Amino acid sequence: MKKVLIFTLTFWLLIVGISFLWNMDVAREEQRHVTLQTAHTFLTQVILTREWNADHGGIYVPVTADMTPNPYLDDHLRDIQVSKDLQLTKVNPSFMTRQLSEIAAKRQGVQFHLTSLQPIRPQNSPSEWEKKALELFERGVKEVGETINNPPNTDFIYMVPLITEKSCLKCHSSQGYKEGDIRGGISVTLTNIHTLQLLPMTMGHIGIGSIGVIFIILFWIKLSSAYGIIQRQAVIDSLTNIDGNNTWADYPGFAVDEEAIYITNNMFTFVGANSGVRLWIVDKGTTSGFYSGGPISQSIYDPYNAGASGYELTTQPAHVFNSPTTLPTSVGTFLVGYSGLASGSTEAIQVVRVDNPLVSPTFTTNYVFIGDIDSGASMPDAPQNN
């Protein structure tokens, strides 16, 4: 039974462990999917804005202290003096992206970065991570995303390639790019993203696992108790085969002496026929038997066909106390029965003495005449209160 308990507990804890790992993997994948979609949305908006800018050949904005002309833009129409108080400068897609990145970093904790293996602006040189991503783009990879631990924060960086379009050649044709070439990439970094909270999931699985363990142990205790009862009942099985017929026990008798327990029963077939009397002798085992927590040892006998010459009638064993000195030491118990035995008007009780009950029992029949005890009259009714 203990092996079954250990196997069941191990199997249950294995299921809980697998469930925890599976749920953790699903939660991480879901978190990555949400983060990836967020980063993709940010980049899509920036790329659409860049395309709008490129389709219009750039846009002009007033020159201010915060908006100075782009020194890396090679365009003879970069600056236009509209009036004495108004000068305009052209903002191309790259310059616009850098300014959007600065605004996003201040307000939303999001950083954009244009980069290329051949940057015009030195600040657009790739980081080691971006360089590896650009090399992957050259081999056909469409996007790259990765969670980066940056203690005390956790960041997510996502990057897609920039494909050279016709509107891009005005600024980049001098670098040898042609339409359709990968000329770089644009990355977005989401700073301080929410990491997977494992504590609630861990505590939930520990709770479920503990409840299951308690239930299994309580069920095992209950099952062990029931199994023990069945085992004890099976030691003395009153369902006995006699002459090829299964019989059951009725009219039980019970007695003890210093070394054994005696149980008598009348045996009946399942169609009601009487099949005689049986005697169970159970060794107390005061030093190694069931009285001291050991196994039960018992034997079953047919006393009236094993030496006793009396009549097979309802039999009750007698208690024998304190090893009386007036009896031989071999005596175990006496089987007593009465069923109208008489000599004239004098009735007799049948007594079968049982010797050597735990070794090789012998059965000796005697009759004790006790006078006229059976008048044949019915028993009177018990007094009734009105």
Could you give the topology of this structure?
Layout: H1 2-55, E1 59-62, E2 79-81, E3 87-91, H2 93-108, E4 110-115, H3 128-138, E5 144-150, E6 153-163, H4 169-172, E7 182-190, H5 198-235, E8 240-242, E9 245-256, E10 260-269, E11 274-283, E12 297-301, E13 316-317, E14 331-337, E15 342-343, E16 346-355, E17 362-371
Helix pairs in contact: 1-2, 1-5
Give an account of the 3D structure.
The chain has 386 residues and is an alpha+beta fold. Among the domains are: 60-91, no CATH class; 237-371, no CATH class. It is rod-shaped, with a radius of gyration of 51 Å. It has helices spanning 2-55, 93-108, 128-138, 169-172, 198-235, and strands spanning 59-62, 79-81, 87-91, 110-115, 144-150, 153-163, 182-190, 240-242, 245-256, 260-269, 274-283, 297-301, 316-317, 331-337, 342-343, 346-355, 362-371. Helix content is 32%, strand content 30%. The relative contact order is 0.08. The strands form four sheets. A five-stranded antiparallel β-sheet has the order 8-9-10-11-12, with no helix packed on it. Strands 13, 14, 15, 16 and 17 form a five-stranded antiparallel β-sheet that branches.
* pLDDT averaged residue by residue: 83
Which band does the percent of strand residues land in? 25-35%
How far the N terminus sits from the C terminus, by CA atoms, comes to: 59 Å
Structural class: alpha+beta
| Helix run count | 5
Kindly provide the radius of gyration, computed on alpha-carbon positions and rounded to a whole number of angstroms.
51 Å
H/E order of the elements? HEEEHEHEEHEHEEEEEEEEEE
Low-pLDDT residue intervals, each spanning 5 or more residues: none
Largest sheet: 5 strands, antiparallel
Helical content (DSSP H or I, runs of 4+): 25-40%
How many DSSP E strands? 17
Large-scale geometry: rod-shaped
Going across the biggest sheet, name each strand in turn.
8-9-10-11-12
